[in-house]
Amino acid sequence: MANLSRILGPLLGVAAGVLVAGWLMKPTPASLPDTASVVQQMREVARLETLQVSLYKKVTFTPEPEATDALWKDVVNWARHTLQNPHGRAIVFADAHLGFDFQRIGPSSLHVAGTRVQVVLPPIDVRVELRPGETEVIDSNLDSTQTAQLLEKAKVAFERDVRADSRLQQRARDSAERSLRALLLTLGYREVLFVEKLPSTGTAG
């Protein structure tokens, strides 16, 4: 029994030392950066996080005759419109950018409880850039103003389609979450949750 005590004594001492060292190395809330610093670093990391997709769409455009306050002018416009029969079709190419405006994120977007942090992402932002060099206008007798209106119509249609595409929205969100989670984990947080709404003040996280 004495020999066993002599053997176990040092082993227990080593085990206790390991446990104490592990406890000392464990991140504590006091060692975490302040919220303002976290927000600034989140903005820097996510600034580059934008999903870009290439799109194309076939569009047609037939402008309506312009209405005026004078009945006779309306008749003249209608006659000119009917005789000229303005119309146009085009295959329009564009790049759509989906991302988050992280300048809108602030301390009120985070809820920290120890080493757990909850984050509310800002609304997704959609931006469309037409590629005029690749756009093909076909079967058109539109003037330059009407052609510009046709392209603007295509741009609006692109934006509407992208905003309605849940798969693209989710891809953009997943990309932003991956980058922000990696950042927050390196800052010392152990659990990172992305939520739609933060808990009320005073509510446990």
Mind explaining what this structure looks like?
The chain has 205 residues and is α+β, with helices and mostly antiparallel strands. The chain has five helices and seven strands, in the order ααβαβββββααβ. It has helices at 2-25, 35-46, 71-84, 144-164, 166-186, and strands spanning 50-61, 88-100, 110-113, 116-119, 124-130, 136-138, 191-194. The strands form two sheets. Strands 1, 2, 5 and 6 form a four-stranded antiparallel beta sheet that branches. The protein has a three-stranded mixed beta sheet with strand order 3-4-7, covered by helices on one side. Strand 3 and strand 4 form a beta hairpin. The longest helix has 24 residues, at 2-25. The two termini are 51 Å apart. Residues 1-5 and 7-27 have low confidence and may be disordered.
Q: What would the principal axes of the Cα set say about the shape?
A: elongated
Supply Rg. 30 Å
State the separation between the terminal residues, measured CA to CA: 51 Å
- Total helices: the number is 5
Task: Sketch the topology as an H/E string, one letter per element.
Answer: HHEHEEEEEHHE
Oligomer: single chain
Helix content: 40-55%
Mean pLDDT: 76
SS elements, strand count: 7
Largest β sheet strand count, sense and barrel closure: 4 strands, antiparallel
Structural class: alpha+beta
Assess the beta-strand content as a share of residues: 15-25%
- Stretches where pLDDT is under 50 for at least 5 consecutive residues are 1-5, 7-27
